Amino acid sequence: MYVCGPTVYSNVHLGNCRTFMSFDMMFRYFRHLGYKVRYVRNITDVGHLENDSDDGEDKIAKKAKLEQIEPMEVVQRYTVDFHNIIKQFNLLPPSIEPTATGHIVEQIEIIKEIIENGYAYVVNGSVYFDVVTFNEKFDYGKLSGRKLEDMMANTRQLTAQSEKRNPQDFALWKKAEEQHIMRWPSPWGDGFPGWHIECTVMSTKYLGRTFDIHGGGMDLKFPHHECEIAQAEASYGKAPVNYWIHTNMLTLNGKKMSKSIGNNVFPHEIFSGDTELLSKAYAPAVVRFFMMQAHYSSILDLSDDALQASEKGYHRLMDAISILEKLETGSKSDFDVQTWRQKCYDAMSDDFNTPILIAHLFDAVKHINQIKEGNEMITEVDLNLLSDTIKAFVYDVLGIAPASEAQGDSNNLDGVLNLLIDLRNEARANKDFQTSDKIRDELVSLGIQLKDGKDGTTFSLN
Question: What is the pTM of this model?
Fold first, then answer.
């Protein structure tokens, strides 16, 4: 299984987290069923062009110029952020996590093959994929259901400055202008790879020329994944993937997430509650549980009300699991555990239908509470099967952390920070401003911002 990973030029946003969480759930379920899974999720540390125009600028280089730091400092900062966030969401590490910069040689080699096969052309040190020529033998647009003729009819004509033969052609390699920071030598001159070629290279290098599953967000279906198919077919003559899986978008309060209109929230803001869009902080396990309550292919709307409802559901589920060991057994079972268990597997095997699975889990919760109240009976054998099954699906498949793990680290951090705030307030009261400023500055350097207000001092995690 190959999943398109993040382009590390900014903090990972919640929509990306939903995608990676969905594929983590699939990875977990395959492993639970006993499959040996090689899961590859890349890191794009060459900022691909913001668009495929001739004058595009890569995102990492743009960020590096803006902050006046090295591009690899940008890469390191946001790769660390990505790993920190997904660790809090309890994602398993992939089997392999390759980087685009680690595969420049392979990207150059496959571009050479595509040129030799007649499906790409070189112009002034850049290389473009020839979509029209490719479409004479293959079908460009088959994944997204688009027809090349329609695309060409609905596309503006190329400008006189464009190097491309056709508007649909896309860059395999771009010539690096003098001011471009990230650049590598190639047969066509110093440059950098286009957006799509890295995934073709890394997926087929580690999974073979034909592999089982390729995934990513719905927004990548066209053009990114369409171009991946074209590159593979142009290189070695066959489609690379048996099953394409795409996750749908995450909205916020019924609208598309957007920084420009202030309708945006980052994971760390949800964990800390440091956003006006939410009434409180929510644990990563609660957010993950919320995400799993919708099918991966459905649009999911995030709101404070939805998170509050998920938090209640999460605690209800955890409370039921916690009392399993305390239940008394009897001579018969009023709950058909075997049939219930099969329903759980049927839900997950039906295109990873997590909302149906969760409905079955809460059906079990209802029976657990009935058994606790003495209104139902269960045998020891069925209780053990119920306990093993519900824990396997909640912890191992859905990846929902237990309440102790979900709250422990957060509570410990809160306790330490509140102690430091008390020490700082004491220093300020004693007019020891050197100590109080040092505590504040040290916390800032660790990404923790203190805010002094009329109701006291609060903190937020940056």
Answer: 0.86
